[in-house]
């Protein structure tokens, strides 16, 4: 069976805009407060390239703390995502940043469980520890687990280096200059990855949650919305932005080494998508597996189960009356 591959998305341009303007004249402005500053070169390069702009008075204010909303907007723009002004689960999502907040959730840069009282607090200065989470996730390495783990990962990737003693200062507020420097390093790291991979990365047979998201985005038949929540990847095939339209869910269980496809609608409504997903796991047996799923779902029994092997992979199809039309559980062994 031909190896499954997907293009590694490379961030080659990062739009970062502290004053909420994107005009070329401002992007190429001369900064009057960067002479002698340690981050002058990367900041000026970013300004000349149009990825960041200074303020109307010609200053960049490199030592000013960067807010949560500003940094999130930068990373979302870096992924070149289409954003829309849609509602989010956050209670304080009103403002210019809401499209980026929604995209950040969809991209899994943010996780609701990490914010108390469902409040994002967009104007709050972001700490270096919190920023580390965003940078690591933007790099596709979201396996660190804790704040210390993310900080360690940024050091391993060469994104954040700390002081002479190697201390990152997790609780210290990140400055605008520091953010640009880390972004500069992130772009360089991503470029190195694409060169090392020859432009392609192989899709693992049984992916973790982050890899499942990339798998979905690589499917030719899928052009909707994707959102990661905990250990699950939610799919909105229509791309409507409505929470009720997330009709398919992928879940990876590391203990069982199994990937589950939950369907909240009849499988026949998503034939091409389901066929392509199954093909990633069972190859040419995907059509047979799909037909079995349709037959099981169409049966009169409210609850039914099918255990079968397709192309050497054990699959359990479970029809339940719990609001889910069908669960397709694919085991690694």
Structural notes for this entry:
- Pfam families: SLH (PF00395).
- By secondary structure, the protein is an alpha+beta fold.
- The protein has two domains: about 5-195, no CATH class; about 210-330, no CATH class.
- Helices cover about 35% and strands about 15% of the residues.
- It has ten helices and nine strands.
- It has helices spanning about 25, 40-50, 70-80, 100-105, 130-140, 145-155, 175-195, 210-220, 270-280, 285-300, and strands at about 5, 200, 225-230, 230-235, 250-255, 260-265, 305-310, 315-320, 325-330.
- The strands form two sheets. Strands 3-4-5-6-9-8-7 form a seven-stranded antiparallel sheet. The protein has a two-stranded antiparallel sheet with strand order 1-2.
Outline of the structure:
The chain has helices at 24-27, 40-49, 68-78, 98-107, 128-138, 147-157, 176-196, 209-218, 271-282, 286-298; strands spanning 5-7, 200-202, 225-229, 232-236, 248-253, 258-263, 304-310, 313-319, 326-331.
Blueprint (SSEs and pairs):
Layout: E1 5-7, H1 24-27, H2 40-49, H3 68-78, H4 98-107, H5 128-138, H6 147-157, H7 176-196, E2 200-202, H8 209-218, E3 225-229, E4 232-236, E5 248-253, E6 258-263, H9 271-282, H10 286-298, E7 304-310, E8 313-319, E9 326-331
Antiparallel strand pairs: 1-2, 3-4, 4-5, 5-6, 6-9, 7-8, 8-9
Helix pairs in contact: 2-7, 3-4, 3-5, 5-6, 9-10
Domain SLH: 26-89
InterPro entries: Cell_Envelope_Struct_Comp, SLH_dom
Protein name: SLH domain-containing protein
